[in-house]
Target: Transcriptional repressor
Amino acid sequence: MESRIDRIKKQLSGASYKLTPQREATVRVLLENEEDHLSAEDVFLLVREKSPDIGLATVYRTLELLNELNVVDKIQFGDGVSRYDLRQEGAAHFHHHLVCIECGAVDEIQEDLLEDVEAIVEKKWNFIIKDHRLTFHGICHRCQDK
Amino acid sequence: MESRIDRIKKQLSGASYKLTPQREATVRVLLENEEDHLSAEDVFLLVREKSPDIGLATVYRTLELLNELNVVDKIQFGDGVSRYDLRQEGAAHFHHHLVCIECGAVDEIQEDLLEDVEAIVEKKWNFIIKDHRLTFHGICHRCQDK
DNA sequence: ATTTTTAATGATAATTATTATTAAGTGAAT
DNA sequence: ATTCACTTAATAATAATTATCATTAAAAAT
Model:
């Protein structure tokens, strides 16, 4: 069966880009750290563990490229750095974030939840929704226990 | 009756800060441009029209302070700059944004829309919501006409 | 009132995140 | 083999923001 990396390779070549070793290394890091929300710097440091010669700008370019191809989502939580999330396979790529204002942890919600809201917005404001970002800020379950 | 600037003054003094002339000038600019989503640079240029001697750092410091006091919301749409919105008086300060991917315009939705969703999130993920950010990216009604 | 302390400011340097440039490397297609 | 487009690493450049620091204004204490 086709691996995720194969599929990403196809997405790249479909847009006439190549899966170079640097790009592959970057994608692998994203695959291996899917839970986290890595910044470009994070990705760079992780990629460099296995590919010590990669440049930071290459990582930025690769992430930007993957973002354009909708392989990753570039998101911002307000701390000044962009973070990059691999999109989930197929289905709804919609997911939301829970940012804890105590410990800074970022959890994910893998459900849409917004179908109804979107229908209202499209109709009432006459706006064609292509994407959305929903983040809740508050106290995570771990910090509530403390 | 109490003006908004008076109320902000109270919020500052309540936290033992003063409403200095520079801070007041900054707040006035925010009040006079409530529709827009001004960046620090925008605010700086507008403040300087009336208070030519103000420094950029002071504007940044003031905006940061106002953000900590929850007088303004510091938001990011992904274009690399932080923007500062005065919070609405009392009531639900919740509002959402429509960012047009064609022309870059940012419109506001002054309705909550998320009550139901929040109830679900609080219960299912055991997360105490203090705030949220919801942004839709898509095509605004103006660009649809073109 | 005058000193003492504290807070806030303006100017500017430093930092951080990101993007652009450049020169060199690589590989597919002649 | 040679060309040509793509990609890269290194580095420079830029933009946004933050830190530093000497100076000033205000408040508190004498």
In short: The two ends of chain B are 46 Å apart (CA to CA). The CA atoms of residues 113 and 141 of chain B lie 20 Å apart.
